[in-house]
Structure formats: structure tokens, C-alpha cells
Amino acid sequence: MKSYLALLLIGLSLGALTLVVNKQAAAPTHARRAAECTRYCHDHGCPHASNPGEHQQIRTLAFALYHANVRLLQEQPWMSYREINLFVYVLLWPLLIAFLAALLVYRARRKARTRSTVRRGMAFLMLTSAGLIVALLYGAASTADISALLNALYWHGTDFCINLANLLDVSYTELNILLFIVMYPAVTLFLILMLAYQRVQPGTLKPDSVNALHPGDARRAE
After folding, report:
1. Which of 67, 160, 184, 207 could serve as 18's disulfide partner, Cβ 3.0–4.6 Å?
2. 53-72 confidence digits (pLDDT tens)
3. In the chain, domain spans
């Protein structure tokens, strides 16, 4: 249970982070500013993105993947660009990551059968994502219309990326690449590989090593 509470705390912390970062920043604007990123970077492409420099090939590939991802989201016929962004990057992908993490922890602790693992993992992944979703809802609390609510949620997340980019002294485009082209896939792939390794090496995670991570469980078992 402590492991899942930790996952929930991570979700709540991520949600709180979006609120804190946006709260301390200046009021959003669509005007272009030379010294920092604004919503102009979202609307027209970020002029602050630095030149590739010594890692030209890697950076060129990263930028190409980013722009291809944007075009793919814009050209899909089912939802608007705003809605597909919220669905994929705020809901679906974080839920997937939370589920994989919960499943990995649960298998390591060997507390239940696979069916129960999946059921409980699904419950906790929803709780883990609740922090971010609640924060986004809070940021859009003044709106009642569903379209206006989705728009407020989208801009809350976009402003977070803009303001975080300014805090980290990187461009809006570079932050998007780091989050959605590098970190999301990397974390997902890492969790999948860990689950696969866990499956083919069932004896690798020994009880002693699990108890070292969760000493309270060892005491209760005695």
C-alpha cells in the first residue's frame, strides 16, 4: 500500500507543480517577447530555439520528430488539436505510465494473482493521475461550458510548458521535445523492459530485496 500511496503522492505533486509554476509567472500573453517564451511560441513556432551546435544531427532529428508529431496530431480526423493533446498527453499516456509502474511494483511484491494485480493497478493509476487532472480542473474552475473548460485546461497545460521553459532557460520547443519526445517514451520503454525482465527472470527479485524496499512488510510478516 505504501508504494501506491507514493505513486499517488507523485501524481498530486505533479499537479501541484503546474499550479505553482503558473502562479509565479507573469500573466499569459500572445505577444512576442525577445527575452522569453510566450504563447506566441505556441501559435507561430518558437523563435527562441537555439541552433543545433555540436550535436547537430541529434538535435535535427529531435526537432524533426517533434514537428512530425505536431503534424500528426493536427491532421488526425477524430478530434481537434486541443482535444487530442489533452487526451494523449494529459490522460492516456500518464495513465499508461502509472499503470505500468503500479504493475511493476505489485509484481515485485508478489501480493496477488495477475487478475487482481491488473484490477488494483488500474485503481491506483487513476488515483495517481488524479493529482494532475484535479490541478488542471482547478486552473479552469471559472468555466462552465465544456468547450471553454477544455480550452482552459489546454492553455493551463500549455502555459505550464511555457513558464517551465522560461524557468529552465530553454525554449518552448526544446521543453516539449524533452517532455514528449524523450521523457514520455523513455519512461514507458523502461517500464515495459522492466516488466519483461521481471517476467523472464521471476527469481531475480528475491524476498530480501523486496523487504529492503518495504521493511514494514517484513515486520508484519514475522
Report:
1. 160
2. 656 788 888 889 999 999 99
3. 2-190
